[in-house]
Design a protein that fits this description.
TIM Barrel, 35% helix, alpha/beta, 13 strands
Length: 376
């Protein structure tokens, strides 16, 4: 039988993924002071029992004021480690690697949840909102508060917070770390000329605008074990005149690779307007070309993400070399057994075996009985 690309293993440093489907980080807005709750355990249990190759925990703040919302997870305090350890154990029981996406929301922090409008909390009655920070004192959008422009001492503190959060991820037993450099949050704000009007060594030229991302990557790589992968999520293009271009992201990926970053998770948008939204029409696989070009030109591994909903589509992305992994989010919310569906539709010789034995045994037996009934 021919090899099914989606079901081949993939290794990143000392971590091996049994297949190429990973759970994309999905903010749940259900944390309490940054801590994991029963909701997060239930949310992730659906995927851990569904045969995914790996998973990434949602955007997790490196500082309390770096949260997107009041309900966002955090790793700014040792007391938050235990909940992440529970999540790791949940996946590890099924032999699935688990990572966490760590970041700082910058000027898009202190926001309401999406179902409450996703607007700034600063417009709500105090004390709900908090002061936001950014590379420059420029609002994200009309009606948003003016953030405080970070000085170099504060920048150094945030870099140290990234490293401290990565150490806590190690202590929690997580398998890898992903830096959140996308969607208009702090690392992306520094990179994009649309949000960064600084005139010091963190602004102006590409070298300067990329400095914070590279500083954070370097700091994390220095504190995690050599065998632990470190990934980076990028908004590969702003798609707005004067914003980040794909050429710049290719160069950023090249420099991140030189620092020991192992993979680029390729997204787009967010510097203005909605989070993680491309300005072009969203169509299935619309961000795949970003992953393909970065992989081809730099040699770094990539993840393709964005409206990947069909098994054949996911398999082709891996098979034609456009990316090394595919990240799935909303389709997994709709169908936590997407991987099982993929195994069956792509002709996997033992599709039930992608699931835990407790499920696989009874599903395989059901098929035998069904086949027998069909021949009578």
């Amino acid at each position: 039988m021919h090899e099914i690309s989606l079901f081949t293993p993939f290794s990143s440093r000392g971590v091996t993924f049994a297949n190429r489907v990973v759970v994309s980080p999905m903010c749940q807005y259900r944390a309490v002071e940054g801590c994991v709750t029963a909701w997060h355990l239930a949310h992730h249990a659906r995927f851990a029992l569904g045969g995914v190759g790996g998973a990434v925990i949602e955007a997790t703040a490196v500082e309390r004021d770096g949260r997107i919302s009041e309900g966002c997870l955090g790793l700014w305090d040792d007391g938050q480690i235990a909940g992440f350890r529970q999540l790791a154990e949940l996946y590890h029981e099924q032999g699935i690697p688990l990572g966490v996406q760590i970041g700082h929301a910058g000027r898009k922090a202190s926001s309401a949840s999406p179902w409450d409008g996703a607007g700034p909390l600063a417009s709500a009655a105090p004390p709900r909102g908090w002061t936001t920070v950014a590379p420059s004192a420029l609002v994200h959008a009309e009606g948003w508060p003016v953030p405080v422009a970070l000085d170099e001492a504060a920048i150094a503190r945030i870099v140290a917070s990234f490293a401290a959060s990565a150490r806590r991820a190690v202590d929690a037993g997580l398998d890898f770390v992903e830096l959140h450099g996308a969607h208009g949050y702090l690392l992306h704000e520094f990179l994009s000329p649309l949000a960064n009007h600084r005139t010091d060594r963190y602004g102006g030229s590409f070298d300067n605008r990329a400095r914070l991302a590279l500083d954070a990557a370097r700091a994390i790589r220095q504190v995690v074990p050599d065998a632990m992968p470190v990934w980076y999520r990028a908004s590969c293009v702003d798609e707005i005149a004067g914003g980040v271009t794909l050429d710049e992201t290719v160069e950023l990926a090249r420099r991140l690779k030189d620092l020991g970053i192992d993979l680029i998770d390729c997204s787009s948008g967010g510097i203005r307007g909605p989070v993680a939204r491309s300005t072009r029409a969203e169509t299935p696989g619309h961000q795949v070309p970003y992953a393909e070009r970065i992989r081809r030109e730099t040699g770094i591994a990539t993840i393709a993400v964005g409206l990947i909903t069909e098994p054949a589509q996911a398999n082709q992305i891996i098979g034609d070399g456009s990316a090394d992994l595919v990240a799935v989010a909303r389709e997994l919310l709709a169908d936590p057994n997407f991987v099982y569906r993929a195994a069956r539709s792509l002709g996997h010789p033992s599709p039930h075996d992608v699931l835990p034995r407790n499920f696989a045994f009874f599903l395989a037996r059901r098929n035998i009985h069904a086949a027998g009934a069909a021949t009578k």
